[in-house]
Design brief:
Length: 208
């Protein structure tokens, strides 16, 4: 069983970020391939693409390890679902920050700087890479960054990075089959009947 702090983070991500943050990232499937004269035409969505096929990827092996560790701090494995890194979230983030579009270019600088600073903090405080730290040590590094509004002046930039990385992680995880199952999402499944909204939901909406 996870420690209470980790359960609280996961629950918050599941019901808030999982629904709200996922939608903006669905457009990654229709991003256009870059060309010398602009972004070019849209990829052929009827066939799969290998990582790096549309544009060169950004993260180094060490940065991928850092990103994987941070993904799993945000969404660790539990009794009902796997960790974020185990379902390809790092691959998503690498593709996202490698794309040539303005939003992704902005995120690229933020993510790379944030990962480097987090690794520097891990080495400075504990003498090890982030991925090699214990869970308690990882949380000691990340806890001051969890909430932008509560972060002190020293941690404001790092908190902005953490917030964006958390959004990307949630958006990626909760659009995987494992993530939608963890949410309890049952869309895109044929129903033999529909009973309507539960009575409790209708009561909360003032409709019953």
């Amino acid at each position: 069983m996870h420690e209470p702090l980790r359960i609280d983070r996961r629950t918050t991500l599941k019901w808030v970020l999982g629904a709200a943050a996922a939608l903006p990232y669905l457009k990654i499937g229709v991003l256009a391939a870059p060309s010398n004269t602009g972004y070019g035409t849209d990829p052929n969505l009827m066939r799969p693409y290998q990582p790096g096929e549309l544009w060169p990827l950004t993260l180094t092996p060490q940065e991928r390890r850092s990103a994987g560790a941070l993904c799993d701090i945000i969404i660790p494995a539990d009794d009902t679902s796997p960790s974020a890194s185990s379902v390809g979230v790092v691959d998503f983030i690498d593709e996202w920050i490698s794309a040539p579009y303005p939003d992704q270019v902005k995120d690229r600088s933020l993510i790379l700087t944030g990962l480097a600073d987090l690794e520097s903090g891990a080495q400075r405080r504990f003498g090890q890479a982030l991925s090699d730290l214990t869970g308690a040590e990882q949380r000691a590094l990340c806890d001051p960054l969890c909430y932008v509004l509560k972060a002190d002046a020293e941690h404001q930039d790092a908190a902005m990075f953490f917030a964006r990385f958390r959004d990307l992680t949630a958006g990626a995880f909760y659009t995987t089959p494992q993530g939608t199952k963890d949410l309890g999402y049952v869309g895109n499944v044929a129903l033999t009947h529909f009973d309507g909204p539960p009575l409790e939901v209708l009561k909360r909406a003032g409709l019953a």
